[in-house]
Predict the 3D structure of the following.
Amino acid sequence: MTATLQHSLSDVREAFTGGRDYLSACTSGLPTRATRAAVIADLDAASVGALNTGAYATAAENCRAHFARLVRVDSDRIAIGSQTSVLTSLLAASLPDGAEVLVPDKEFSSIVLPFVHAGRGIHIRSVPLESLAAEIRTHTTLVAFSLVQSATGAVADSDAIEQAARAVGARLLCDATQAIGWLPADADRYDALVCHAYKWLCTPRGVAFLALSEEYAATLRPIHAGWCAGEDPWASCYGHEVDLAVSARRFDVSPAWQALVAAEPALELFARADRDALREYTTSLATRFRERMGLEQPERASAIVTWCDPDGRDLAALAAAGITASGRDGRARVAFHVFNDSHDVERAVAALER
């Protein structure tokens, strides 16, 4: 991986048109100015018949390279997909019969259901997130968990989970969808890391990535293989005698061209951003909100704040004040991204204190 000029925090903030009163990056990120321009330019070109498939292929490879920089591995270990569930199903299909998959309670369905419905006697065992590392057994085949929980914003104790899994030879699948963009995640720590980039990385929906260790990739079957999985995609469009790519590209699904064109500038922005500055900025806003609301501070700082709101009253109060938030599993949920600032904190607090 080659070094690139790093964007400052102010550079990243300047890339967005706005963000005032939008506290829902955990639901979907906001497009950057460059993403908006890329979408418009592509549609304008397509509308006059100037569709360029070569440019789409270049955009896909650039996106792959940007994501590789984000998770600090080489790009030949990155597969491109459209949804986390599709990429996870690739792993589920290659598990041995009767395998045990250990997951946190109320884990996001996209990294659980592919294992639930894989058949072949695969057993799902669910435990509290805080007990996940302690519950890893010698017969555990794979541990699947989100680095940051969607419903609660809780940050997993990745160090403890990794150590416990390695001690017994269990595989590790990390879903970093709610992390990358504010919380650094290095793919080398896991056998597989999956991420849908439309949240904290601010791409359009339909751009997802799977980072694989070389050793784990060698055990997987490319069950979604299509023409783009060929070593030479344009020579792999017909017939069954196709040589698949030797890199993780053999696990690619056919790319969503327009989504990748739009995703490229956003991924480049975050790939060159100061990861530590992003984490400090976003978590400090969330910490300030918790302080102002009298909420307990988590053991590991998170940019997502949730609290019990069973009747949706708090969520309604935020909406009435023009603030976009979200609710999950009987909890109100707000998220603080780089396009937010202290004014967003104070406006949310004021809405909830009325």
